[in-house]
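Supplementary Note 3. Input sequence used for the single-chain structure prediction.
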Amino acid sequence: MKKTLLALIAITCFLSTIKTIHAQDNTGEHKYKIYAVVWNGCDSACKGFRSYLDEKKFPYEFILRDAKNDDSVFPVFVDEARSKDVDLVITWGTATAMGMLGSINNYNNGSYIKDIPAIFMVVAQPISVGLVSNYASSARNITGVLHIVPEEAQIKIAREYIPFKKLGIIYNPQESASMQNVAALREIAVREGFNLLEEPIPLDANGMPVDDSIKYQIYRLAERGAEMVYVGVDAFINLRQKEVADACVEKGLPIFSVAESAVMNGNALITVSNHYYNIGMLAGKKAFEILNNNIKPYDIPINMPEKKSIIINISMAKKIGIYPPLLLLDKSEIVE
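The predicted structure, written as discrete structure tokens, is reproduced below.
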């Protein structure tokens, strides 16, 4: 009996130390547990986040979970983050942020991360989708990093390449972030004196965008005299970058995209954006402030990196036969 009792005490003591051992490295140093949820793979933003903490020699355990484009996994991830008693949650993408953190209207209902500090990145329109209501302070246990350069700056650079009088845009009218993007462009068009030619994607009987209509919307923009096609924050369109690019190349239309990936992959001509790596670095800095300096997430403004990048795909320029002016070329990054 005495041996059994001693064995039970030993097991209890061992179990009570598992959490501490798990959160330490082999030197005994405490390691903060960071639970990262990405939408489809750990990209350069994810790598930039880790690079910042590594440069600071900050002790952390990185628990990576990939949704693989499946939003049904988020309740499982929320439960796991809680059960692992993690110190910080970081999310990549709009669907991931909303699935893990909830909106300002529902984050208190018990289905989302609330008591664990969190950082979001690569959310196109955080206010529009209801993630936060203010960039100065989230007023909740989260902060974030913006990545989309304001439309005014986008148009300024686009018109340095081509001083267009007619700018075409295709978009899914069912996406609130996309409609906000279009509304901003309408205002800029009036101020700057150009015409915004809109081609919303038609909807089927169920109110869903027609999947094979993109090519024909591009053709219509060409017929209406568009000099450049703008691809904004629209998720439906951005999932079909190659289809957009193929139709535009066929019609000799240059593409300005807000997505850096579109230009890097050869599916757009030009972008002005924040490198995803820099987005991750800034998110890493915020993580350091929260975990090392004990700053509350709501006391850290939601902002973007100071340095913006103009990226031009010269291969796309060759395909459509429209080359960048030298002054713009001098301040741009060139990819092929």
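The CA atoms of residues 147 and 222 lie 30 Å apart. The domain at 151-273+309-335 is CATH 3.40.50.2300 (Rossmann fold).
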